[in-house]
Every structure is written in C-alpha cells, then in structure tokens.
Amino acid sequence: MSEPLLFGVLGGMGPLATLDLLQKIIEITPASRDQEHLPVVTWNVPQIPDRQKALAGKGDSPLPQLLHAIQQLNRLNVSHIAIPCNTAHHWYPQLAEASRAPILHIVDIAAAHIAALQPRPRRVGIIATKATLQAGWYQQRLAALGIDTVLPNEQEMQTLFVPGCYAVKRGENALGGQLLQELATVLLERGAERLVLACTEIPLALNAVASPLLALSIDPAYALAQHCVRLWRN
Which SUPFAM superfamilies match (predicted)? Predict the structure, then answer.
C-alpha cells in the first residue's frame, strides 16, 4: 500500500500569498468533513531575503534559506512541494536537486491551465516582477501555444507594479489594488484579451478593490491549488 500524500508548501514569499494558496486549496477541495481535506504542512517563514532585490543585485541571495526550507520539508517526508512565489522559481533547479519530493512548477501548471481554456486567448498580458518577465518563462510557454504576450514597459513597472506589489507586502492591499488595476487596464487597452497575474500578491490586491478585471484574469496560484487537489483526489 502506497504512503498517503502529504503536501509541503514553501511559503513566506510573502506570508499573505502563502495563506492565499492554502485558502484556495481548502475552498477547491470537495470535502464534507475535516478528514477529507488535503493534508498540508507549510514553511511560512518570511525572513527569506527579498527575491526581487537579490536578482537586481541589491540584496542577499534567498537560496540558502530556500534550501533550508527544503531540508525541513524533506524531514517531514512530504510527497510534493508547492512554492506560491513565481520569482522564487529562479532557483527551481537548485531546489529540485535538493528535494526528495517533486517540486510543482507554478509556471508549467499555469501554462497547462491556459492551454485548456476554451476559447484560447490570442493575446495575454503578463503582470509579474521584472525578474520573472526577464526570465521569459511565461512568454516562452505561451508562444509555444501560439499566444502573443503584452508586457508592461519600464516606466509602468516602476510607477505601478513595484509600488503595488510592495503595498501588499506591508498590508496596504487596497492601495496595491488601485495601482495594479491601473496597470492591468493599460495592458488590456494595449490589446490583451486575458491577464496572467504572475506574482502571487496581485490577486490579493485586485480582490481588495473588488476589481472587475479579475473576471479576465488567470491566477497561477489558483491553478497550482487546483493541481494539488487533483493530485490528492487521484
């Protein structure tokens, strides 16, 4: 008889985004009692160095702390690990090598979700950190699906995305929502049919202002939660 699945979440990046993933997992799980919910252990330690600053050469690397988190989850014999932070996937190869359990890749899972959309969008706007955009993960996967991407320019990143993202990190979700909704509107005006919220703070911000643009948005964290639940149920 195989061991029951136990999911590990490498979180803290940021703590609200981690709780958001857990909330989504609970809401998606078709359970009628406690015992039917997906079993999860969470490493929600926000003292991991800032990923954006590290990749901009302005801060310490988060890799030692990320590897420490993987070691702690390894000790618990988790069956899978989810990371509700897109930018942290820059260190995915090193983390996957150190992990005994497979690490679910949020970008691959989001791309599979987009591939299954009916109708499939022709142009998609991507809202993400500068490091994630420069890595090109979403652009490459969407191009393979025949989907064009619309990206923010440098000024929009500096005046809308960065302050919007960090507003959420300090608990000012409504301010973050106003800024990020403005950025989302710009991408839609530029021809995007749907939006990929490729930073886990963005859905929290848009929810805080009850943004109507959520109806046009694809949330990779939600796709990750769905994937976890499917693995658990199958």
Answer: Aspartate/glutamate racemase
